[in-house]
Amino acid sequence: MMNSLQPLQFSTLLLLDLAGTFVFALSGGATAIRERLDLFGVLVLSFAAGNAGGITRDVLIGAIPPVAIQNWLYVAISILAGLVMFFWFQLYRRLRDRILVLDAAGLGLFAVAGAQKALVAGLNPVAAALLGMVTGIGGGMVRDLLVTQVPIVLRSELYAVAALAGSSTVVIGNILHLPPPYSAAIGALLCFAIRMFAIRRNWNLPIADASNQE
Amino acid sequence: MMNSLQPLQFSTLLLLDLAGTFVFALSGGATAIRERLDLFGVLVLSFAAGNAGGITRDVLIGAIPPVAIQNWLYVAISILAGLVMFFWFQLYRRLRDRILVLDAAGLGLFAVAGAQKALVAGLNPVAAALLGMVTGIGGGMVRDLLVTQVPIVLRSELYAVAALAGSSTVVIGNILHLPPPYSAAIGALLCFAIRMFAIRRNWNLPIADASNQE
Amino acid sequence: MMNSLQPLQFSTLLLLDLAGTFVFALSGGATAIRERLDLFGVLVLSFAAGNAGGITRDVLIGAIPPVAIQNWLYVAISILAGLVMFFWFQLYRRLRDRILVLDAAGLGLFAVAGAQKALVAGLNPVAAALLGMVTGIGGGMVRDLLVTQVPIVLRSELYAVAALAGSSTVVIGNILHLPPPYSAAIGALLCFAIRMFAIRRNWNLPIADASNQE
After folding, report:
1. CA distance A144 to chain C (A)
2. In 10 A of CB B206, how many CB atoms?
């Protein structure tokens, strides 16, 4: 867990991770407010959106207790994001486009960090790439399910594919023995780029035609 | 798990825990019947409402298999509650107000016991307080999600705050080196009191105004 | 995990497990297509329907990482099923009745294999029987919850009872010291038979009358 990252990379990696958590938590808070949840509901959705992906990954690789539970900074930053949403929801609305850019950056960070953590835990390349993706998309899925909406990531948007591209880059880099920081940087950038292109050009994945398909 | 509580406190603690499970399981069965689930659905919701909070806590702290799985008494008491609901649903309706009192007592017990178990597992104070709360509210959340309702605890009622007050009391008592039974008793009573006041006075947490907030 | 099955039973057991995963994954893909999810959503629901039961069991017994994550064949077979659904959904519709037979066979396999794995992990008989059932029905439950439907298994159909009969047979066989392959075969057949009868005769579990029950 966190300890294994200390002391050298402590400041940078943890800060990046917390920044990603904060941005994701904002989206959780926004969803909660739109659904008219009370203050506690806002904080729970903030925490879930920011941390459920990482918690799922940690449970599946046996990193218990999950870092988001064990390190109180993740709880604190999620609560902060929830309170920001609760008191300045209009601000969020006005900045939504810029926050979407931050969200894409957070997705890249989470996908890459998740894949690396899975590799360190000894998982095989396929599993590591998938768990990196889960780290990136899990929070949004739990956020949506808590307000009984079909997760947006299952329905539209090139979101999971971007995360998978980022996490796969880390895994491929590991197979090719590239220095981890390099493949992490390339993976995060690739994820970010795909996500931004998808937003700009309104790219979507195909949907099967259930009615009159041959 | 259970073993660590034996032999001294076995009877009292386990009985209290099973009593709490039974009361929570009643609420699960009631929800299932209102949603017109079949007998199996009633039993599943009874088990989920009574045990999902504790199972979540155990998975997150690495107490595997969770005590609710390993000790068959939890399954048995949950099934009993489900059958009671299935055959005497009208009785439950008539006694609903009195059962709400029992539910508040169960919440206090679960929050306090959950926080203590997390502390024993070596979690930090913030995490232990949160996991105590999760132990108390998790069952109701899973119960609601299984019938695709937004968990009531996210929407209204001073329920989670009461649980958090109870679990935090245990954690603070631990920091101050108070004897665990004392802080547990105070925490459970505090949770119960807050919950009963909230019901009597219809206290709720605030909701953000998403439409015209500045 | 997988290793413990090798080398003797590797081919047969793994092939049966993968076949069950494939059939369950088909049902996940079909649900996703009916709900108009995109290609990624189809693959996620295929994977969830095929593997969520086994993953839940593995997390609860501490078999980490879950075999469905660790062995990439489970991912591959699930994706294959999702793609089959995506491109030949009409074929699935035409063969639905025959696939229901395969689904009943898969249920028997999963329930029996899940109970055996739980017994090997040292769980008590009640827990092992329940976890066998969870292995069989968990995938379908998560599939339904991901598209915010109340799990069909909670509402109607003699599905869970069939799984429980199969897993209980394995557990009873273990208590009676019968050779595992025999009780497994009997259990799987029993589950299959109950399920097929239930489909043919339209058997259902009772529903409590919430309105005018005395």
Report:
1. 10
2. 10
Q: Is B1 exposed, middle or buried (0-12, 13-18, 19+ CB in 10 A)?
A: middle
How close C60 gets to chain B, by Cα (Å)? 5
pLDDT at C210: 66
On chain B, the residues whose CB falls within 8 A of the CB of C205 are 38-40
For residue C10, the model assigns a pLDDT of 54
* C57, pLDDT greater than 80: yes
Contacts of B66 (CB under 8 A, 6+ apart): B51, B54, B55, B58, B59, C60
Chain A residues near residue C145 by CB distance under 8 angstroms: 145
**CA pair distance A189, A184, nearest whole angstrom:** 8
- Tell me how far CA of residue B78 lies from CA of A15, A210, B45, C164, in angstroms: 44, 41, 9, 17
Minimum-distance CB partner of A213 among C32, C69, C90: C90
Q: Does B155 touch chain A (CB under 8 A)?
A: yes
SS3 C38: strand
Q: How confident is the model at residue C7 (pLDDT cuts 50, 70, 90)?
A: very low
Q: Provide the pLDDT for residue C95.
A: 82
B11 Cβ under 8 Å from any chain A Cβ: no
How far does A37 lie from chain B, in Å, by closest CA? 4
Sorting pLDDT into bands at 50, 70 and 90, what band is C5? Answer: very low
Residue B211, pLDDT score = 61
**φ, ψ dihedrals at B38, nearest 5°:** -85, 180
Is 60 exceeded by the pLDDT of residue A18?
A: yes
- As given in the structure block, the two tokens for residue C49 are 């329907």
Mark which residues 111-150 of A lie under 8 Å from B by CB: 145-148
Neighbouring residues of C178: CB distance < 8 A, sequence distance ≥ 6: none
C214 neighbourhood in chain B, CB within 8 Å: 90
| Per-residue confidence (pLDDT) for residue C90, from 0 to 100 | 86
Interface check for A32 against chain B (CB to CB < 8 A): the answer is yes
